[in-house]
TrEMBL record:
Protein origin, superkingdom: Bacteria
InterPro entries assigned: DUF3019
Secretion signal, residue range per the UniProt entry: 1-30
Matches recorded under Pfam families: DUF3019
Keywords, alphabetical: Signal
Name of the protein this chain belongs to: DUF3019 domain-containing protein
Length: 140
């Protein structure tokens, strides 16, 4: 009878130990996810009526990193920074823009111009341009 109690106690201790390891591994992986840099764009698409038309959109770009430092936000539309932040780990940028093609927003470190993260604002359209072939309108 004593041996059964010892066996149950050791199973209970090993079960508690395994549960503790599982909880530690879950919290570690959750910490890793929150340490990744984030860059969000709203809206994610700019939609024009027809293919080839420019699109006008009010874009809101927000970012977050773990380490406070100096950062700048860039766009593929212009070569200069859209906005820079000093000693920050979070930022927001909002502007009205004309889109003629997909626009990539990139967060870089201001100190050494190192790429941190980027995200794309996609250009989409409701109707595609349909071109008629020259042969379709010829009489002969």
């Amino acid at each position: 009878m004593y041996s059964k109690q010892t066996s149950n106690t050791s199973n209970l201790n090993s079960g508690t130990f395994l549960l503790s390891l599982l909880l530690i591994s879950i919290s570690t992986s959750a910490d890793e996810v929150t340490t990744l840099p984030k860059l969000a764009i709203q809206p994610t698409q700019c939609v024009s009526m027809r293919q080839g038309q420019d699109c006008f959109v009010n874009v809101d770009v927000s970012w977050q990193v773990v380490k406070k430092s100096d950062y700048c936000l860039y766009s593929t539309q212009v070569s200069t920074p859209l906005k820079c932040w000093s000693n920050s780990h979070i930022g927001n940028f909002q502007a009205d823009i004309f889109v003629t093609q997909n626009v990539t927003f990139t967060l870089k470190s201001q100190n050494n111009n190192v790429y941190i993260i980027s995200s794309v604002l996609e250009l989409a359209w409701v109707h595609t341009t349909q071109r008629l072939s020259h042969s379709s309108w010829r009489v002969f």
